[in-house]
Amino acid sequence: MKTTKNALLLALSIALLATASPAAAQADFSKFVAIGASVDAGFLDNCWVRYGQVDSWNAILARQAGAPAFEQPLLDTPGTGCMYLISLAPQFGTRPAQVKPLNLNLPRPYDNLSIPGYTLQTALTKKGPSSATDVAGIVLRTLNATQVEQAASLKPTFVSIGLFGNEILGPATSGTAVDGVTVMPAAAYAASYQAVVNALKAAQGGTGKGVAQLIPDITTIPFTSTIPPFITSGGQVVMGPNGQPMTFLSSRGGDVTGGGAGVAPIPATSLVNITASTFLATGYGIPCAVLDAGGAPANDPRRTNCNKPLPDNANAQLGIPGVVLYPEEVALLKARGAEFNAQIRSIATAAGYKVFDTTAFFTDLRTHGREYAGMTVNAAFLSGGLISYDGVHPTSLGYAVWADEMVRFINANYGTTIPRPDLSAYLLSGNSSQGGYPVNLGASLTTEEAIAWGAAIYTPEVMRTLADTFPVSARTAVAAPTAEDVPVPAEPRGRGVRIDD
Amino acid sequence: MLRGSDRSRVGGLALLLAISLVAAGPASAAGFSIFEAGSRSTAMGGAFVAHADDLSAMFYNPAGLAQGVKKGELRAMVGVTLIIPKAELAQGYDPYPGSDYSVKMADQFFFPPNFYTSYGLSDCVSLSFGTWFPFGLATKWDEPDFRGRYLSQYVDLKQFAAGLQLAWQINDVIAVGAGPEMRFSTVKLHRKVPLFNPFTNRVVDAAHADIRADLEMDVTFGAGIRITPTPKLSIGASYHGQVDANFEGESTFYQISTGNPQLDAAFAAKIPVNTKVPTKTTIQAPAQTQIGIGYDFGKLSVEAAGTFTEWSAFDTTVLEFEAVDGKQVPTSTLPHDWEDAWAFRFGAKWQVSEKFDLMAGFVYDQTPEPDGDVGPLLPDANRRGYSAGFSWKIGKRTWVDVSNLYLTFSERSVTTNDDNFNGRWKNFANLTVLNMRTSF
User: Fold this and answer.
1) Which of A275, B8, B33, B87 fits as disulfide partner to B427, beta carbons 3.0 to 4.6 Å?
2) How far is Cα A219 from Cα B56, in angstroms, rounded to an integer?
């Protein structure tokens, strides 16, 4: 009965679309289905939660395109452990995780099937949760079908093949890029991608209709690019005896327990992940001599572990990530990412999908940002507005800018006239939810919560990037100040600034 | 009543001079030029360069001041223009400010005055002094949540001209006139300074910027020629030079609390708040050329004229701020990229009696402003103006002139604004000009 009604509605909406806008016939959103990973699900602040999901770029696109009944696996607040900002130090807290699905009984697959942490492999093979806490279960439920199978079963008229980048993001965020071990060969990625595309294309009658995403250059996201490799003292880069800036210490190939090729300054073109801040706070990576020269007091917490190397690689047993990407790792991730993208472009295009250059888009957000009536937003950590607290995933504003870009891309490629989204709510209220971005989810913060993530991120290093902030409205970007020009922001006043809005 | 009384005349002049010290002027011709320097000229749609037969010729055509000169005679003309501008963003566009957004400009009115006097040095040479407002811009968006508040909430730019001109009727056919002009300018600009608040993930107002310049004085000149091949036919041309007003002034960034002391401190560490910041900027007032032809058919006179304004001079405004306490407000660059623009003017006068003239006119005024620059600072558009007026002789040597110009603006739909502030703009303006002319 319901199916008949749905079919009728569907037929009606197709008919309406066809009569209302002949150009729109090229892109039929009457059954819009999205697959992918975290960024396609609206994941943000290291959290999967309703306030992010309702403004996932897929959801915004569905609203703009008038896709009927675009169902998502919504999770009520507080979600899967959302980060929040305690102080600009920066210091973060994490909300207690509570998984409260709102839409678990939908008697069919969701239209947005994207699952945080997903890879092409899991999208093709996983038919249910692998453990009680596996978030894939929230989406896959007991339908006993993979993400791709569930998408295909919906007979989508328009498909969003999301950003399958965990294959390259994982090695980057764990600081461990080893070819053939943590970084898969391009051929293997291509084979999986081909299988995904084949399944979707078949469900669409043999010709792919929809959009596919490339993988951004993960060596430029805030997670990997916020902390410079140089040691600073009092906001100034410390210069070595050779007149060159001093870099942090690490041991190539070692992990938190030691090992590796020996403790030495990292090359200046290394990347230091945002997770290094935990280690830097207790002195890892910093020569004790630098602390002496800088007049650090005897009880400076950094004296605890000074002269010890920052962990280069992850230690799987202890579950502690590596935090350094050496230049050869950076080069490998860049090159492999480009190879994956070449495969995506060729496979998706051959199947009929339009490939959006997500790589160029994110690079553009980082280098130029966007300006809306004097408000400049970009991909800088915390101050830029487009990337959330986890340093990887966009904010709702970032997702909305992405959705806007997708609308324009689809209109250009399919001859449609989908209206662009209204970004005023995201810019001025944080997101499209009533009352904007939830800065206080009802629960007051405990000390434990406050220090949970607070231990994580820190210091003058990040602060220096933060200080490169707060541009005054200027229609033409002014040259970014050099390191010397950046004033050191005032010390935080008091600790644990309560976020009451 | 004013009629005949010397005392009243002098009182009127004093009043007008007092007004001139406080008056402001918004743009009433395309861009931010004000073309209404006299009532009769306004009634004729601004087509006045060929006839130029009252003292407002100082603006329209300095050569016109040589008409009817008598040695030892002092002529004077005073007046005021009442300008009521209206503007609205009838509908915003997505992505910003959003298709559900509309906003009206705050109600304002302005009354720039004019004053002219001319003395006959001989029966063919006159020396004239006068003041008028050739340029002015005033827009005001006073809703606190105005979505363009980071671009402009308030701008008040005015330029006042004081000219001294000699005019010489060389022979029956040719007259010339020219002289220096001092231009006095001021500018004020208010806007909010945005800051991304990472605690709430939204853009908030971090400061109210009050940018103001001291009175700036520049010198240029005006010149004109008037040719009358026959007593019925007149041809005129005039030119006023460009002025680059190099303003110096000061800005104050009044800090607005974001609700987070740490963020406020971070902002105040970067921007010199609540203190005077020496500021510099340059605004170009373009050169203007007028040409026209007039013909008199007995009681009916007609004139057609064109005005060419070299708006391409107004290409970029750069606001430079001096560092204060080691803190530097970034330079703000506003590209305008305006284009030179023409206005076409047509006017007719019908002499009803010796004591009463009726006039009417039409103007088509092309906007110099490209789509990229159409925004809250100035949402300009092509204009069509319809004017009418009369002159009434109320004394032996005294006339009163009354005119009204109704300016309609083409609705302007902008999708490519440089600041991503797009929408459909609707404007109109009404101008009423009153003048009194007399001679002694």
Assistant:
1) B87
2) 68
Interface of B with A in 297-356 (CB under 8 A): 326-335
Choose among A442, A445, A447: nearest CA to A78.
A442
Chain B contact for A439 (CB, 8 A cutoff) = yes
Whether residue A256 contacts residue A276, with contact meaning beta carbons closer than 8 Å, is answered with no
CB-CB neighbors (< 8 A) of A396 in chain B: 201
ipTM of the complex: 0.86
State the best of A85, A402, A472 to mutate against chain B, taking most chain B CBs within 10 Å: A472
pLDDT tens-place string over residues B408-421: 999 999 999 999 99
Burial class (CB within 10 angstroms; exposed 0-12, middle 13-18, buried 19+) of A298: exposed
Q: How many CB atoms lie within 10 A of CB B217?
A: 12
pLDDT at res. B76: 97
Task: Tell me the average pLDDT of chain A.
Answer: 83
Cβ count within 10 A of residue A296: 18
CA distance B98 to chain A (A): 5
Cα-flanking dihedrals φ and ψ of residue B379, to 5°?
-90, 80
Q: Which of B55, B295, B74 is nearest to B177 (CA)?
A: B55
- With an 8 Å Cβ cutoff, are A473 and B199 in contact? no
- Any B CB within 8 A of A480 CB: no
User: Tokens in use for B91?
Assistant: 């509908």
Inter-chain residue contact B262 with A88, CB threshold 8 Å: yes
Which residue carries 């991909």 as its tokens?
Answer: A379
Q: Crossing angle of helices A327-351/A186-203, nearest 10°?
A: 30
- Please give the Cα distance from A136 to A114 (Å, whole number): 9
β-pair partners for B221: B180
Nearest to B198 among A376, A382, A485 (CB): A382
> Does A404 contact chain B (CB < 8 Å)?
yes
Q: How far, in Å, CA of B34 to CA of B158, rounded?
A: 10
List the structure tokens of B83.
């300008």
- In whole angstroms, what separates CA B373 from the centre of its chain? 18
pLDDT tens by residue, A175-191: 999 999 999 999 999 99
Best mutation target among B89, B141, B200, B201 (most A Cβ atoms within 10 Å) is: B201
Task: Name the pTM for this structure.
Answer: 0.85
Average pLDDT of A70-88? Answer: 90
Q: Do B150 and A375 touch (CB under 8 A)?
A: yes
In this complex, is the C-beta atom of A378 within 8 Å of any C-beta atom belonging to chain B? Answer: no
Name the one residue in this structure whose structure tokens are 């764990």: A174
CA distance A421 to B95: 5
Question: Please, which residues bridge with residue B282 across strands?
Answer: B246
- Cα–Cα distance measured from residue A3 to residue A18, given in angstroms and rounded to the nearest whole number: 22
Q: For tokens 């510099």, name the residue.
A: B280
- How far apart are alpha carbons B264 and B269 in whole angstroms? 9
Q: Where are the alpha helices (DSSP H) in A165-245?
A: 166-173, 186-203, 222-225
Helices A166-173 and A327-351, packing angle to 10 deg: 170
**B251, B210 Cβ separation under 8 angstroms:** yes
What H or E segment, with its residue span, contains residue A448?
helix A447-452
CA distance A423 to chain B (A): 5
A499 vs B contacts (CB less than 8 Å): 199-200, 260
Rounded distance, CA B41 to CA B73, Å?
A: 23
Measured between beta carbons, which residues in chain B are less than 8 angstroms from residue A492?
Answer: 262
Nearest alpha carbon to residue A456 among A84, A182, A165, A134: A84
* C-alpha–C-alpha distance, residues B261 and A269, integer Å: 36
Q: In the A/B pair of chains, how many CB contacts fall below 8 A?
A: 165
pLDDT for B142-199, tens place per residue?
999 999 999 999 999 999 999 999 999 999 999 999 999 999 999 999 999 999 999 9
